[in-house]
Structures are given as structure tokens and as C-alpha cells.
């Protein structure tokens, strides 16, 4: 009798374990599908799927964290910024609360530590985009601590390398004087190590593989020796996520930096046409302006000055980003220079200086003004 009871208990336990494993497998598939939806700009589909998962288990940390990730994508790419900001914090706060509860039960729970790392990592991303350096620093440190603990507790959690890779790479690119003091705050950077970790996440991450690939694409764009590799990565992402505005724009940028403007024209013109579709109705004005800005730059490189000027004019009319306006005026000035319309070019360089600097646009505009004055091409003092 005791043997029969033991066998029955073992059978029930094995069935429960099987159903738990099956449930976990289904959850993982659904989360991966939600990531694919989000990266293809199908935000509504991603949110519907994540809401259904949340309804199945309101105390599961994952749907809340993944919804927060969707909302941060919406914040960056779409209109209605305030609504998306509120929803981001609602979901990230709920995810933090659940993960902290798990960690309180067992501080060595790798699962709890991993998702706490995710909470603080994406919060750091929010504050970085918002320009709050202190909050970015605070949250990045917390994320690093939890990711490192996860790494020790579960070496097979390869998604952790996405967070660690982003952290180590960008901490390693900070100004040298600042990096000197970072070890005092346990905030060391490692550029090469960060790239290795991102590659590991790209190859073996369950959820973060394509996020890591995108981060590598952004990094390689500014590394001349890595641009061919970056181009292959972005082309794969464009093929997998054909509706992702940022991926398509990056493809054109890569061709431009590789000196292949004839190949850059096709994707940028296609993108300019696509953003008129209903699918992109919620795309932010700044993103639309960015598309025209790059279209103009590529045309300028091909000496199509009038076409470039039309794009720069459109960018200036659409964008509400002060920094993008600075870049647009600077580039507008260059195109006018090409046509020997020096007085007009000078006015655009001055306007560039009136707006927030965009990756050196002020310095470049000042250099062009110096040239115009030195060669006495303008009558202004």
C-alpha cells in the first residue's frame, strides 16, 4: 500500500513537473514573440500578447518588465511621449516590486537577481535618453551588481551579457579623466570586454540576442575597421524586422559611411515613402526629420544640392529637437556653399550655433564660418 501511494505521488509530481516545464516553454516562446513584435514596430501586438500573459499570472515579473521595454521603445520612436512615460514607470515599478519580493525570499535566487538587473538596466536607459546623468549612473550601478550576481549563480544565463556588455562598453568610452575616478565607485569600464559580452548575448541570449546585435551595429558604425561586419549585422536585422524604422535608416547610414551612396539612396528613398503609410502614423516628428536629414546628407554627398536642400527644409519644418535643427542648418549651409551661395550659407551656420550642439555641429559650423571670412567670401563681420 505504501509503495502504491509512493508511486502515485511520484506520478503526480512528474506530471506537475512536466506541465510546469511546458508552461515555462510556452511562456518563453510568447516572450520571444513579443520581442519580435516590438522590434518590428508592431507595438500593439506586443502589448496585447504581454497583457494576456500578465492575466494568466499577475505575479510573474516578466510580462511587466517586457511591457516596460515596449514602452521605452514607444518613448523613443513615437508620439504621445507623456502617456508612454507614465506607462513605462507603472510597469517597471511593478516588475521591481515583484522581483524584490522574490529576492527577499532568497537573495541568491538568480532569477530574481536577473530581473532586478533588467529593471535597473532599462531604467538607466530611460534616464540616459532623458539626459539625467546622475540617475543613469545610479541605476547602471545597481544593474551591474545584480547582473554580476546572476552570472555567478547561473553561468548559463546568457541574456545577462547584454546588460553587462552595454555597461562595460559605454563606461569604457567615458572621458579619460572621469574613468580615472570610476573605480572608486565600482564603475569600471572595458570597451573590448563589453564588445565580447555583447557578441555572446547576440549568439546565445534567449531574449536579448537582437537587442545585442543592434547595440553592436551602433558601436561598429563609428569603428571604421568594423563597418563591413556591422553592415552584415544590420542587413540581417533589416531582413528579419522590415518595419523597424531605425534598422532601415541604419542600413542607409552604413552604405554612406562605406562610401556607397548609390546603394544608400535606395533604402533611404524607400523609407521616406514608407513613413507616409498609416502603419507609421504614430512615428514621432523627430524620427521623420531624422530620415529627411540623412536623405539630404546622402544627396549632398552625391552633389544633388537642390534635392538635399528640400530634405533639410523638410527636416527643419518637422523636427522639434533643438540638436537636430543645429545639424540641419549646418548641412544646409554646406549645400549652399557648394552652389557658391556664401551669404545664405553663412546665415545657416549662424543658425546652427543658435541651437543645441549635435555631435560637434557647433565646431564644424564655426570652422566653415572661419573659412568664409578668411577667403573673404562674405561681407558680414
Low-confidence stretches: 1-22
Residue fraction in strands: under 5%
Gap between N and C termini: 104 Å
Indicate the CATH class of the domain at 284-381.
Answer: Mainly Alpha
- What number is the mean pLDDT? 91
User: Tell me, what's the shape?
Assistant: elongated
SSE run:
HHHHHHHHHHHHHHHHHH
Structure description:
The protein has a domain at 284-381: Serine Threonine Protein Phosphatase 5, Tetratricopeptide repeat (Alpha Horseshoe), CATH 1.25.40. The protein contains 18 helices and no strands. The longest helix has 38 residues, at 2-39. With 381 residues, the protein is mainly alpha-helical. Helix 12 (245-257) runs antiparallel to helix 13.
Short key terms for the protein model shown above:
single chain; about 375 residues; mainly alpha; Serine Threonine Protein Phosphatase 5, Tetratricopeptide repeat; about 0% strand
Could you give a quick summary of the protein structure above?
With 381 residues, the chain is mainly alpha-helical. It is 78% helix and 0% strand.
Amino acid at each position: 500500500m505504501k509503495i502504491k501511494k509512493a508511486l502515485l505521488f511520484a506520478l503526480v509530481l512528474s506530471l506537475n513537473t512536466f506541465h510546469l516545464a511546458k508552461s515555462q516553454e510556452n511562456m518563453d516562446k510568447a516572450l520571444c514573440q513579443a520581442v519580435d513584435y516590438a522590434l518590428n514596430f508592431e507595438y500593439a501586438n506586443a502589448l496585447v500578447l504581454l497583457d494576456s500573459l500578465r492575466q494568466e499570472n499577475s505575479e510573474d515579473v516578466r510580462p511587466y518588465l517586457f511591457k516596460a521595454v515596449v514602452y521605452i521603445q514607444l518613448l523613443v520612436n513615437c508620439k504621445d511621449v507623456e502617456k508612454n512615460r507614465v506607462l513605462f514607470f507603472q510597469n517597471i515599478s511593478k516588475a521591481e516590486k515583484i522581483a524584490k519580493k522574490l529576492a527577499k525570499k532568497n537573495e541568491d535566487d538568480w532569477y530574481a537577481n536577473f530581473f532586478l538587473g533588467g529593471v535597473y538596466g532599462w531604467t538607466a536607459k530611460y534616464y540616459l535618453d532623458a539626459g539625467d546623468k546622475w540617475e543613469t549612473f545610479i541605476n547602471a550601478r545597481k544593474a551591474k551588481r545584480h547582473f554580476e550576481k546572476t552570472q555567478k549563480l547561473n553561468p548559463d544565463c546568457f541574456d545577462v551579457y547584454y546588460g553587462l556588455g552595454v555597461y562595460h562598453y559605454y563606461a569604457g568610452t567615458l572621458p579619460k579623466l572621469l574613468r580615472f575616478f570610476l573605480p572608486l565607485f565600482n564603475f569600471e569600464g572595458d570597451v573590448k570586454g563589453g564588445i565580447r559580452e555583447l557578441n555572446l548575448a547576440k549568439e546565445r541570449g534567449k531574449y536579448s540576442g537582437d537587442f545585442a546585435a543592434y547595440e553592436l551595429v551602433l558601436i561598429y558604425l563609428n569603428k571604421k575597421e568594423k563597418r563591413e561586419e556591422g553592415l552584415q549585422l544590420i542587413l540581417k536585422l533589416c531582413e528579419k524586422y522590415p518595419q523597424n524604422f531605425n534598422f532601415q535608416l541604419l542600413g542607409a547610414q552604413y552604405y554612406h559611411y562605406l562610401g556607397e551612396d548609390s546603394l544608400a539612396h535606395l533604402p533611404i528613398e524607400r523609407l521616406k515613402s514608407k513613413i507616409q503609410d498609416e502603419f507609421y502614423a504614430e512615428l514621432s516628428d523627430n524620427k521623420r526629420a531624422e530620415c529627411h536629414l540623412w536623405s539630404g546628407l546622402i544627396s549632398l554627398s552625391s552633389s544633388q544640392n537642390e534635392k538635399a536642400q528640400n530634405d533639410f527644409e523638410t527636416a527643419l519644418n518637422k523636427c522639434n529637437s533643438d540638436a537636430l535643427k543645429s545639424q540641419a542648418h549646418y548641412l544646409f549651409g554646406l549645400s549652399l556653399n557648394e552652389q557658391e551661395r556664401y551669404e545664405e550659407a553663412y546665415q545657416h551656420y549662424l543658425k546652427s550655433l543658435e541651437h543645441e550642439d549635435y555631435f560637434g555641429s557647433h565646431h564644424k559650423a564655426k570652422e566653415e564660418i572661419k573659412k568664409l571670412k578668411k577667403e573673404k567670401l562674405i561681407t558680414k563681420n
